[in-house]
């Protein structure tokens, strides 16, 4: 009894709430309550509720409540309600959603409203084929699976539905309903009666003839009947919305449509027919007219405002046979060919393939790129909806949606990074919605929300084929992940292109797209694509795409480059035999300490495109490219020999297809000898420095809106890393001509007299010197006012600028010979005047050379000025300083600072100039290393440039970017020194400035050494440093064979180190050899020194004979022979009667050694040696009985590079060799 009372009370309360809701939301305003309407609604709800097994004794669903359109629109979360579902249906729905828990939340709500295609009352113009559910509180967009046109305008109870709030990409901000099942009418629907008289109709075969012949039927409206064989999507073109349906007849054998006739429906009130039409059904369309479409060569049938759509009832129609007059005006269209797949793997590269048309039913299992219209079907196929206008369908597409695709194109092996087959509907295809998804929309990243208009541009404006479109979509996703949201906002990067405001994303893709699909002036003809037979569309033919390029993140590019660098690191390749076999451990590990690898875009697959925002680092002083993943150091040149000088480049987006990815490998190793080079355990530490270098002329520079720039590293302070030049509180400025820039290095810089030296740490800083130009200028509007007059015209205008802290960011843009504007805030009066206290420096030595000294503050900025606008600069010499070659290679130290341009020949690591090559035993002090550059000077009018060594030590290490073998570099203010062997060399100082003029060439050409006579080396000046000569070995001066300890280089008899108290870590020994020969070629004599494996060439021994000779030498550890001439007396370190000594003495005097050779050599006395040349000497010769006294040039001293046998041997030489 209690339960009955409770049920009665609950139902009564529910009935009162229902009555109130119906009166407010359904009944017309300002009218009395409609009791009949209320009762009809309640009866409808009761009938649905009681038909299920969940009623639990209640006659009404008291747990359910009515919801209005206004309340649903205010919801921010999706929901669903299924009043008509049984318990089994609910369980099946829960299982279909899967265990992920992503199903739509189910709520107990009742939805009541009028189904209509009018967005507002009685406004026909607002009809565009959309459906709505309306009540007194508002209106909701809706989608449903099947529509009966008789439902429109009637009140329904919707038993099963879901509501989804607006997605991020939805600019209208409107959610929508998904009506799962057919709505239940509150009032019975009226049934349309059959016509009293049969309708006269034309069937497709006759209707198509009417279009091609002169007929009286053209001027009258006709009725058409037939089977719906094709249905196009809704198309919005030229401010019109329409769709095309085709009536025809299907062949029973193949199911192919024949005698089909297209009908265009573009009356706004009839666009909703598109939702009611079902392919395969028979229909009658009344009161059609014949019309011609602009741009289409054939006439077509079109509906009129009085047309109606009916299901075909054979008993209510009769076929009409019109009289056709005159000849056929248009040819019969050819039957539609069914394209088939080409045979994959048998066509040549780049050959065109034909897509295949088919019908497909499947479920969406993934959203790949929603703005681009890319989805996954059944976990095996890709679906591309971009070639249709799919905006209406886009809001329902999510995993779980079931689709039926009619006449869809299947494309296989499209390439471009796409591995799965692709289904792509064109405007000739139909997409039918068969089931909604029970899952709620997933949370999508921003790059999957914005950019729909940009993707449409790729299809409709650029008219890309499917393979290229899929690649472009993937590339845009890569670019978005690289740059958004910290560098650019998603909507700004993926914005729609407008005249004068092109999309940044499209600008970055344009170079690659132009190579494959140049911009076309033709427009995609929509009418022909839908109406023409045989069918032709952008999806019909395609070619497999080789991936044009990729846009990796900077971190991924650096990681892949570093991986390639270490994969190619092979000590045996860097130190090939036989050279490595004679190196002690110290030299061996030094030669491996630094190496480099240069990668180009073609070294990656696919080719990589460099992309990032240019920023200036205040912690390192060099430029960087930055994206979401991090930053990558870069070295830029505007063009050959021209540095980058304009700070406005900071914050610009840089795209480069031609670049060099440089990986400098630094290795700390302890290889005992060359035999262990293949053992990686001897590599103690490895580190790589990765950077890129490229020319701005080879790059695309895009300015980025300043309001959108954000640091990609939130933890980095704006004072330490500058992404974009900030707009300062601009007040005053002054121009200066930069004359010299010093190197960037860590120094103890005291910014003020109040600073405590004990707490200061070395920081990166540098100084520049220049000349003030004109006076201080004040900001006036958008420009600068006239310069103020100088207070003291005769005062020296030299200035020294000190950069430290955040101002170090300007280092990469400051170069001698350029004019810059130093801009400061208005709060610093009298800043540029020498009398001002703000410019007083704490460094008297600096003020002694300059009229003023300024410390550049963090908020100050620099701007590049054109020298043509400054008259004072026109008469000044602005070329890079160059020291004369005689002054450089001389002992004159009047000016010990020299400047010159040179090509780097080699770069090696050596010990510091103040240290020793190897450590002493027990000394645990870490050795300080030094970098050595061997350069070829570039003086004018020198065919053979001299070579020079340059040393760089701490605190100048690590070396600046770009100091690579093959690079052209200008060195300014190096310190010139002379070694104990009288060789000139240079060292880096704090005043040194380095400017890279050009990068190493991509392809190096090996130039053979010049072939000369030895006497040409005595001419001086233009003599080559390296050359070859055909000469004859006259005699052997000395020969030394020895085995030394690989660690300490002591003699090793019997393979054991002979040093007292040896604590060498290994008992490894290496062989070394040297021989001194006297050669002549009839023009001059030369003493040639050969070392190590060149000794074998000089002795004429093959590799096996040479190895055996070295093994015989292992016993004594050292064998040395000294030959003195004339008389050939022998001085030996061993007994003369020993077999080894006797063999070597005999060999050195044999024709096998004293023979003609082709000698490749270099001067033992380098051009940088300043030792005075030895004058010619008087020498007595005996010619028969007559003594002769003549002047003889000094013997040349050469170092052997290689020895080869002459190409043609004399018969005597051939006999001696045998």
From TrEMBL:
GO BP annotation list: positive regulation of DNA replication; telomere maintenance via telomere lengthening
One Gene Ontology cellular component annotation held by this UniProt entry: CST complex
Q: Which InterPro entries match?
A: CTC1 (IPR029156), CTC1-like (IPR042617)
Its annotated compartments are: Chromosome, Telomere; Nucleus
Q: Which UniProt keywords apply?
A: Chromosome, DNA-binding, Nucleus, Telomere
Recorded GO molecular functions are:
single-stranded DNA binding; telomeric DNA binding
Pfam family of the protein (one): CTC1
Q: What is its main location?
A: nucleus
Q: Which family does it belong to?
A: Belongs to the CTC1 family.
- Protein's name according to its UniProt entry: CST complex subunit CTC1
Organism encoding this protein = Octodon degus
Name the lineage: Eukaryota, Metazoa, Chordata, Craniata, Vertebrata
